[in-house]
Write a structure and sequence with these properties.
This protein has about 120 residues and is mainly alpha-helical. It has helices spanning about 5-20, 30-45, 50-55, 60-80, 85-100, 105. α1 packs across α4 (about 60-80) and α2 runs antiparallel to α4. It is globular. It starts with a helix and ends in a 10-residue tail after the last helix. It has a domain at about 25-100: Orthogonal Bundle (Helix Hairpins), CATH 1.10.287. The protein contains six helices and no strands.
């Protein structure tokens, strides 16, 4: 998602909440809790599937997963907006850190955490 698309989504979410008088419910705490709840709904679609099954979802299941992923994104964007965090910038900074923590020549093929190698 490009930065301009993120800005459009953020503005749309602000407007959506404002016209419904939901700003009162959108504290960072509540948004974080809603985000975790939606992430739980997302993961429920994969519970008990093996790796192959999880990559070959039935179209209806894939659509349901897409809906849950959208809910997670919506709450994440809303939370970032409330906390004035630029998600695009935060993700880029995190990737810079991950590239330092996980040098490809040291971690290729390993699932070890950065402090385990």
């Amino acid at each position: 998602m490009a930065q301009d698309q993120m800005a459009v989504l953020k503005a749309r979410l602000r407007q959506f909440a404002a016209v419904r008088d939901w700003e009162q419910f959108h504290s960072p705490k509540n948004l974080a809790m809603a985000l975790v709840a939606e992430a739980g709904e997302l993961v429920a679609h994969f519970q008990w599937l093996d790796a192959a099954q999880s990559t070959a979802l039935h179209p209806a299941k894939r659509d349901a997963v897409a809906q849950e992923m959208a809910d997670v994104l919506i709450y994440l964007v809303r939370l970032a907006d409330k906390l004035e965090i630029d998600l695009w910038q935060a993700a880029a900074a995190k990737m810079d850190l991950n590239e330092q923590r996980y040098p490809a020549d040291l971690v290729r093929g390993s699932a070890a955490k950065y402090d385990e190698f």
